[in-house]
Known about the structure:
3 domains, 5-stranded mixed β-sheet, disordered N terminus
Amino acid sequence: MPRMSRRAFLAALSRAGVGAAALAALPPWTRRALAAAADKDQLTPAAVDFIIRNDRPENWETPIDAFGQWITPNHRFFVRNHLSTPSIDGAAWRLEVTGLVRTPLAMSLADLKALPQTTAVHTLECAGNGRGLMNLPSTSGTQWQRGAVGTAEWEGVRLSTLLQRAGVAPEAQHVWFEASDQAPMPAVPKFLRSIPIAKAKDDVLLAHSMNGEPLPELHGFPLRAIVPGWFGMAWTKWVAAVRVEDRPSDNHFMVRGYRYNYPHLGPLPPMPVEAIRIKSLITRPLDGAKLVLLPRLKGKPPLLRIQGFAWAGPSGVRLVEISTDGGKTWQPAGFMGDTAPGAWRAWATEIEVAPPARVSVMARATDNAGEVQPLEAQANPGGYGNNSIQKVTVNVRLA
């Protein structure tokens, strides 16, 4: 009897109507695959292609081996939810623009798509990316390692277009994003973020499409905010209302959450988590890999290819360097492929090695403002902004 593939096996279970008690006993990846099959009568890649950091709400991390393209496919793009994913009727949905405006708006998805559209490639990173690698005694946040990041092509309407149509009052200073996701209990605060109006009028999008497809439900259907250069907490999903106010939001996730707090530095007020920090990621080779290298002509040492991505806040990436001696010396890597403001840069280089050998490689990036990726990021209780230099160690031998 031929062996059934994992996906075929899961599909068969779904068609057989596996009960709730049996499902509860299955591993998380199996339950998720079966749910996808039940909803769509097929198994979607999103069900099995992530590191599941949390079941509900969904916090799914992209494995490093999935970062092979400049654009991260939707089915491999990490998912970060604070509350339960809402189910929204796109036909009935309306976006309200209210607050300190002359003409409040209520616009359907069709209304938004009838306005001038903008398409842009931007990198999204969770502020807690790398929290699980930071030297912390304890933290309640999701233990992300390196995969809570991705780059997509977003299409939508500039927020500035809507603000102009609504007519912003002179005293307006901040734009609030109200979302449709619901807290499980009344005592749990809703998720609400605000940004300064100068940022809102600059390059913020309200996106309805992701990589040429309608925005997936897990990524904010029907509309999410795209705030280039800022961490993902500002990229509010399932946006239902845009409020223009004279002050920042007093929501829990603004006043208490997403703050850099350094108790060892004394009674300094916690600073808000906002701009992405300069960072690089080695995607090839993977840490712990055992590699076989081809010999070169004329007795030259074989070459080991190192590649990855680097990204930064609003200033952008200027340089990526590689070290094979623990950071004593550094040599530049070269950029390659596509580029866009607000998107990560692909980079690569080759180094000579003498097999058999155990080789450790470090990568660090520098942004256009002169900020250099640190060997160790300063720890903070929330585990935010970990841009520590990554080290990959591999074993190599000749073919």
